[in-house]
Specification:
Number of strands of chain B: 7
Structural class of chain B: alpha+beta
Oligomer: heterodimer
Radius of gyration of chain B: 20 Å
Helix content of chain A: 25-40%
Order of helices and strands of chain B: EEHEEEEEHHHHHHHH
Helix content of chain B: 25-40%
Largest sheet of chain A: 5 strands, parallel
Number of strands of chain A: 19
Structural class of chain A: alpha+beta
Radius of gyration of chain A: 25 Å
Strand order of the largest sheet of chain A: 5-2-1-9-17
Largest interface: A-B, 81 and 76 residues
Largest sheet of chain B: 5 strands, mixed
Shape of chain B: elongated
Chain lengths: 667, 248
């Protein structure tokens, strides 16, 4: 099991995917009827895969823990989706999207996978428009684009600040069509509890009906995991409350290698924490950095006055503001990639320039954009460009049409009007680039078990560029997995139905029952959230935006102790045969408590800084991250061996044939 | 802030249910309503009382999972927000807050404040889609220009989050606003016109079968909709339906 075969096809980079599609085995339409596939998760990846597999003729069973597939957390993605359409004629191409993504990922992703992603990106937009996704359009009726961090072209398609919602509803509608035809059987309010292996192959899952509490056995010829990322290991993140690591952690424990667990994206523009009761953090889309300028006061005296409420940000003159991203990175300015922008905010706040009570916030200011747009509008309408009030009014209307829902969201949470005063923002955990190791076919190291979307590790390296998560989720689900899964399933056309009466199902079900009983009968003194919050604090303090050896070692020890305490003292009220959210949470937190340790272990092992992983020991005199290509140009795939501390590291060397590996600079 | 909470408790679908009273103290006005509920639940758990079950997930107003009828209004007293975006600063110190589930025949209670809204899914399955397979061979996205006004109107209908506030607010428990938003999105776009007749007939048929009531144009749905979906959509769907009935 310790060998990693990525299965990247031979030949020139640009021909690999086309050639591979022609070479792999197919399943005939008549035989597809004999094959069952389970999909866990109904976000962009899960919904698009379910719909497409069903269209092809497979029998699909899809599971989600929410009350409807439409509620998966892809729905909350705001800014947009990238595609190398070059509709703006600004020099975009498949190669450029590929290059930007590899560079943005700090040269820690696979060339062939990323090229394929760039290649199919254009099909995604065509597909979504055909489904009726209402993307933003210009007055000529054609599709509009905007720009995102880390790139120099406008290739991002969007639907105001609700792009994820519209794309997910598109995929959900495609699913609905198949559910209506009986080709997909949908299991809402169901949680996957474990994967069942028979003769070393994935042959089904044990799921829990969250309404009745009953455990159910489901057999299939292949299992696709599309359960998203594990950012909630930090407790506070922009993920939904229910987002969890459990599905991918269970398959990891059954033999799927876990790759680069420490690669986490901390998003620079989120609404800052306001109190201990905080349950989650809210993102303000990266698209805002198209028009918003990030700054803190230049003088520490002004910072103090602001914190005391004696000075307002709009009263600080231009020359007394430090637009630190524009100062440090003149070429990309406010549109540097997320990891760079987050660290820069932390640097200013660590130096004492944070502008709210907690000292952990910076300004995102739209006043320049409001004036710029206002003057433009006034000119077009033949009105007075020097009438400040008029210009402001016109400019605010433009900003409202672009980001209206985000501004409204901000105002409701913070109780300040962002059209009049700058937003306060601070970085927060948002996305996990790490995930289940998969080969070129998106199969994990367990035969017949696949991982797609954020759940896998393959495309974003050590840092993901904005508007690329939606692209990857839909690329995997619509255009990659439905082809590649046939290669494996072509051997299964004579297998017949997978019976769930086999001892493997029995065994898996028993072991879940015993864990559930343990939680219910424990009657400890602390709630599940008590442990989740403690874990989150360890993760944020010691495995967050910057990491060092001492902290990571401490984190490992502290998480081990916390886990022990959890099993002794956790209190789960209610019973196992009813709707019991605390019980569901207990299962998820127990998995986070194991993943957290592997996360820290992975961070400790990788002594270089790359992308979102910043090791304080590895930086230059200007404080910029220093990569160590000689020793770390590999994917860290961890093999489970009984407990996280015993996980074995297997390295998949990354070969760059097309791209010259360079120092990533946005200066 | 100190508050008196009167919360609907119902252990299962078959339980009769009742209101329980829980006083709660030290609530920050900056908390969201659901964070206040988290605090309540932590307190209940520490006292050995079953926590209150409620639906929630994204907590940023987009997934549509949270519900709750607060002081007689779906998603509470604030406008254009879901319960997760409602903040305690909208309430007064010492206030009594009554918290109930969304009530409708088509939304049976599962537990406490959690209701079953799968009827909405089934209406969409009856026709809420454009029949196009994934092939990679669909025509170029810019092949059909779409008038910006129509595209914007389609978008305004498409932002419905499927929370069910319209049904809960309607005295007839009608789902017309929800269904009309989906019908409108597709009928405004050229891609959706091909199947327009079947779509509206099938979706309305399913809506009736699920036990939703009729629309009497009182407009409560529009007022309480967290996304500001307009009544215009209902008018558009009625036109589509009438047209389809004659044609079909």
């Amino acid at each position: 099991m310790s060998n990693l075969i990525s299965g990247i096809p031979d030949g020139p980079l640009s021909d690999k995917w086309t050639k591979h599609k022609s070479d792999i085995n197919l399943v005939s339409p008549a035989n597809k009827r004999l094959i069952d596939i389970i999909v866990v998760g109904s976000g962009l990846a899960g919904a698009s895969a379910s719909a497409t597999l069903a269209e092809l003729g497979y029998n699909v069973k899809t599971f989600c823990f929410q009350d409807s597939p439409r509620r998966a957390h892809s729905i909350a993605a705001q800014g947009g989706i990238n595609a190398a359409k070059n509709y703006q004629g600004d020099g975009d191409s498949t190669y450029r999207l590929f290059y930007d993504t590899i560079k943005g990922g700090d040269y820690r992703s696979r060339e062939a996978n990323v090229y394929r992603l760039a290649e199919v990106s254009t099909n995604i937009i065509d597909q979504c428009v055909a489904q009726g996704v209402p993307f933003a359009r210009d007055y000529g009726g054609l599709l509009d684009n905007r720009s995102f961090g880390g790139v120099l072209v406008s290739r991002t398609f969007y639907a105001k600040g609700q792009t994820g919602q519209q794309l997910l509803l598109g995929a959900y509608s495609a699913m609905n069509r198949q559910i209506g035809r009986g080709q997909i059987k949908m299991y809402n309010r169901h949680e996957m509890m474990d994967l069942v292996l028979i003769d070393g192959k994935a042959r089904g899952i044990i799921a829990k009906n969250l309404v009745t509490g009953k455990l159910e056995r489901h057999g299939a010829h292949a299992v696709v995991i599309a359960s998203g990322g594990y950012g909630n290991v930090f407790f506070l993140s922009t993920n939904a409350m229910g987002s969890n690591v459990s599905a991918i952690w269970k398959i990891h424990k059954k033999g799927a290698h876990f790759a680069n667990p420490c690669f986490t994206q901390i998003h620079p523009t989120c609404i800052p924490v306001s109190g201990d009761y905080q349950s989650k953090l809210t993102l303000m889309s990266e698209s805002l950095r198209n028009d918003g300028r990030i700054w803190v006061p230049k003088n520490i005296e002004d910072v103090k006055l602001i914190r005391e409420g004696k000075l307002k940000p709009i009263e600080i003159d231009e020359e007394n503001r430090d637009y630190y991203l524009e100062r440090r990175y003149p070429a990309f300015g406010n549109l540097v990639p997320r990891d760079v922008a987050s660290r820069a905010a932390k640097e200013r706040c660590d130096e004492g320039f944070g502008i709210n009570k907690t000292g952990e916030a910076v300004y995102l200011d739209f006043s320049s954009a409001i004036i710029r747009y206002g003057k433009e509008k006034a000119y077009v309408k033949g009105l007075d460009e020097n009438d400040d009030l008029l210009v402001k009014k016109l400019g605010q209307a433009v900003i409202r049409s672009k980001y209206g829902n985000l501004f409204q969201m901000y105002e409701k949470i913070v109780d300040q009007n962002p059209y009049e005063t700058p937003m306060m923002i601070y970085p927060a955990v948002h996305y996990t680039m790490g995930g289940v190791w998969v080969d070129y076919n998106l199969m994990t190291s367990i035969p017949g078990c696949y991982a797609i979307g954020e759940a896998n590790f393959s495309d974003h390296g050590a840092n993901r560029l904005g508007a690329s998560a939606l692209m990857q989720g839909l690329a995997d689900g619509y255009f990659v997995l439905p082809y590649t899964i046939g290669d494996y399933l072509s051997d299964d056309i004579r297998t017949g139905k997978i019976s769930t009466d086999q001892p493997e199902f029995e065994k898996a079900e028993k072991s879940i029952e015993s864990q559930i009983n343990l939680f219910i009968n424990n009657k400890g003194k602390n709630s599940v959230d008590y442990y989740h919050k403690k874990l989150g604090k360890i993760m944020w303090d010691k495995c967050g935006m910057s990491r060092n050896e001492k902290g990571l070692r401490e984190a490992i020890k502290e998480i081990q102790d916390l886990r022990e305490d959890f099993y002794k003292n956790v209190n789960v009220p209610g019973s196992s045969d009813e709707y019991n959210e605390e019980l569901a949470k207990a299962g998820r937190v127990s998995d986070f408590l194991e993943l957290g340790e592997l996360f820290a272990k992975d961070g400790l092992e990788r002594t270089e800084s790359c992308g979102g992983h910043f090791r304080e020991e590895s930086k230059n005199s200007e404080g910029e991250a220093v990569r160590d290509d000689k020793n770390f140009t590999y994917v860290s795939a961890w093999e489970y061996n009984g407990e996280p501390s015993k996980a074995k590291l297997i390295k998949e060397k990354l070969n760059f044939e097309e791209i010259e590996v360079k120092t990533r600079s946005y200066k | 802030m100190n508050l008196i909470l009167k919360v609907w408790r119902q252990s299962s679908r078959d339980d009769k249910g009742r209101i329980e009273t829980y006083p709660i103290s030290d609530i920050s006005p900056d908390m969201s309503f659901l964070e206040m509920m988290d605090v309540l639940n932590e307190k209940l758990i520490s006292k050995g009382i079953d926590p209150v079950s409620f639906d929630h997930d994204c907590r940023e107003g987009i997934c549509g999972m949270c519900s709750m009828f607060i002081n007689g209004e779906a998603h509470g007293p604030d406008r254009l927000v879901t319960t997760c975006q409602l903040h305690m600063r909208k309430f007064k110190d010492g206030e009594t807050i009554i918290i109930e589930p969304f009530r409708a025949k088509a939304f049976p209670v599962i537990k406490d404040l959690v209701v079953d809204r799968s009827a909405f899914d089934r209406i969409q399955q009856a026709g809420g889609f454009i029949s196009v397979n994934t092939s990679g061979n669909t025509q170029d996205a810019n092949a059909i220009p779409i008038n910006k006004q129509d595209a914007d109107k389609a978008f305004d209908a498409a932002i419905c989050i499927g929370c069910g506030a319209c049904v809960a607010s309607c005295k007839n428990a009608s789902a017309m606003l929800f269904v009309s938003a989906k019908v409108s999105q597709y009928s405004l776009l050229p891609q959706g016109k091909v199947e327009a007749t079947d779509r509206v007939l099938n979706m309305v048929k399913q809506m009736d079968e699920e036990g939703f009531g009729n629309c009497t144009n009182t407009g409560a749905c529009e007022v309480e909709c967290p996304k500001g979906i307009s009544l215009e959509n209902i008018a558009r769907m009625n036109r589509e339906y009438l047209f389809a009935s004659f044609k079909g």
